[in-house]
Design brief:
Number of strands: 0
Order of helices and strands: HHH
Strand content: under 5%
Shape: elongated
Distance between the termini: 53 Å
């Protein structure tokens, strides 16, 4: 396997020409040839790999990446999310109460609770329909 995608480092020693299979590298090996410095074990890694490598064209997002570009929209979405999560917690609490009342035989209270759950669902649906261009 002499073809590598990286050019050979001219300062690195020539690789051994033996044909016997090499054992896997383990730290603190009894064999000194396995405890070589990093630049000998990986000749394709040069001191300029990364910042000075001409193969790297794009280093990632520029300055300010990840910062909010529209704070008004973000605050509106956060408020809507908090309101929707509050309704969901209320629905879970109401469902617990409705099931408890139904199991004890108070079906009238259970139906009122079911109405509360339907009403809270309609509130969330109204919030969703409030601003269709924001989806």
């Amino acid at each position: 396997m002499t073809d590598t995608p990286f050019p050979r480092d001219p300062g690195a020693p020539d690789p051994p020409r033996d044909t016997e299979p090499r054992p896997a590298y383990t730290p603190s090996s009894a064999e000194p040839r396995l405890n070589r410095p990093v630049h000998e074990r990986y000749p394709q890694i040069r001191p300029t790999s990364g910042y000075g490598d001409p193969r790297i064209r794009h280093t990632g997002p520029g300055p300010g990446a990840g910062s909010e570009q529209e704070p008004e929209r973000s605050s509106k979405l956060s408020a809507r999310l908090v309101l929707a999560l509050t309704v969901v917690v209320g629905q879970l609490w109401g469902l617990t109460i409705v099931v408890d009342e139904w199991m004890t035989g108070n079906t009238g209270t259970a139906w009122w609770g079911a109405g509360f759950l339907v009403l809270s669902f309609l509130v969330v649906l109204g919030l969703w329909l409030l601003d269709p261009k924001d989806r």
